[in-house]
């Protein structure tokens, strides 16, 4: 029964990807190939090309489909706010914070986190995210204890990676 429900969810998500071209067939084939791989995935393409639909399908087709799919639009949040949203914060971390807050990475534990428009992050935030991707550990803003998570990361961007690398290097960060 569980396998049938999973197959049904996968079919629903893949049906959002419409087309018969070789390019679309290649995308669906890649989704099927990458669905159960734990590695992080970067989806790139112009705005409006279906990057979110591909992320939804990757999650639905994978072994984490029964767990949370947490989505964040990185372009909609400034650097400091994005850090707090991703990693959470502790009471007193900044003015007005009266209680601890769990971040989206922790909320996605066991599931998938989708970082949309990752190319819009500040270079410092990209570096912090890189460290989290390497270790799957982070600290909440204002905290000192490490939090370990098991999360699959799917990211999307409409920027070329070379542009992002140049932006990091402009700020003195070597990749």
Key features of this structure:
globular; Rossmann fold; 8 strands; 175 residues; four-stranded parallel sheet; alpha/beta; two-stranded antiparallel ribbon; 16% strand
What would you note in describing this structure?
- 42% of the residues lie in helices and 16% in strands.
- With 175 residues, it is of the alpha/beta class.
- The chain has one domain: P-loop containing nucleotide triphosphate hydrolases (Rossmann fold, 3-Layer(aba) Sandwich), CATH 3.40.50.300.
- The strands form three sheets. It has a four-stranded parallel sheet with strand order 1-8-5-2. A two-stranded antiparallel ribbon has the order 3-4. A two-stranded antiparallel ribbon has the order 6-7.
- A hairpin with an 8-residue loop joins β6 (137-138) and β7.
- α1 (2-15) packs antiparallel against α3.
- The protein starts with a helix and ends in a 5-residue tail after the last helix.
- The model has no long low-confidence stretch (mean pLDDT 82).
Kindly provide the name of the CATH class: Alpha Beta
- Main beta sheet strand tally, sense and closure: 4 strands, parallel
Radius of gyration: 17 Å
Terminal Cα span: 46 Å
Count of helix runs = 7
Mean pLDDT: 82
Number of domains: 1
